Amino acid sequence: MKIIKTIFIVILIMILIIVSCVIYAFKIEPYRVKINEQVYKTGDRTSNVKIAQFSDVHIKEDFTSQNFSKVVDKINSKNPDIVVFTGDLYDNYSTYSEDESLKDELERINAEYKFAVWGNRDYGGGASNAYEKLMYESGFKILKNETEILDINGKKIMITGIDDSMLGNPYIEKSSENADIKILLSHEPDVVDNYVEYGYNLALSGHSHGGQIDIPFVPDVNRIALSKTAMNDKYTAGMYTIDESTGQKIYVNTGIGTTHVSARFGVVPEVTLFDIWM
Prior knowledge:
By secondary structure, this protein is of the alpha/beta class. It has a single domain (32-277), classed as Purple Acid Phosphatase, chain A, domain 2 (4-Layer Sandwich), CATH 3.60.21. The chain has helices at residues 2-28, 65-77, 99-108, 128-137, 219-227; strands at residues 34-41, 48-54, 82-85, 113-116, 141-142, 146-152, 155-161, 181-185, 202-205, 238-243, 248-252, 270-277. The strands form two sheets. It has a six-stranded mixed β-sheet with strand order 1-12-2-3-4-5, covered by helices on one side. A hairpin with a 2-residue loop joins strand 6 (146-152) and strand 7 (155-161). The chain is globular and about 80 Å long. GO terms for molecular function: UDP-2,3-diacylglucosamine hydrolase activity. This is Metallophosphoesterase.
C-alpha cells in the first residue's frame, strides 16, 4: 500500500511539474525581456559607443504593441547611441496588424541613430509596404544593401545592412572606406559567411529565435525547433567567431516574439546592448 501511495505521489508531482512548465512556457517566459550586455573591443580603445539590438518582434494577436512597450522601456533605460532592428516586425501581417499603436512604440525608442533591415516576415503576408512606412515614420532608416557612415565620439562607424536573404535580393559591393569599426546587419545569420572578405568586424543578426525551446539535458528538442527555420544551422544564438585569423564575430540575437508556437522555454526574449570600445 505504501509503495502504491509513493508511486501516486511521484506521478502527481511529475504532472504538476509538467503543467507548471507548460504554463510558464506559454504564459510567462514569452512576456519577459532581458538585457544581454556584450563588450566588444577593437583599435586603441579610447572611446566607446553603445548599440542596442532587438530582433524578431513578431507582433500578433497574443503579442501586441502593448507587450512590446516593455521592450522599448528596456532599450531606453540603457541610453544607447544607436539602435538596430534586425528584421521580422510582424508575424503575419495578413492575419493581424496594428500599425498606428506599433508606430507610436517604435517612435518612442530614443537614440540618435535608428537603423533596420528587412526580415523574411517583413515581405510576407502583404507586410512590405506597411513595414517600410512604419519604420520610416518612427525614425528608423532601413538599410537595404546600403551603408551609413557615422561619426560618434570622434570615431568613424560604418554600418551596412543587407536585404533579406530568403525573400529579398541581398547584394553589396566590397567597400574601401576606412572606419574604426565596420558592422554588418543581416536578418539571417548563416549568410554572413558570404561576406568574410568584406572586412566587417562584427555582424548582428536574428531570425533563429534561439529555437524558442531549450529544455535542459534534452538538446534534441532545441535542434528540432531550430530546423524549422532556414539559414540558422551554423549560428543559432549568442556570439561566435567567424574567422579566427581576423577576429571577425557574429552575434545572433534570439529575438523578442514567437512564431509557429507561441511559447518560449529557456530562451528568454532579449535586447542586446553592445558596449563597443574603439
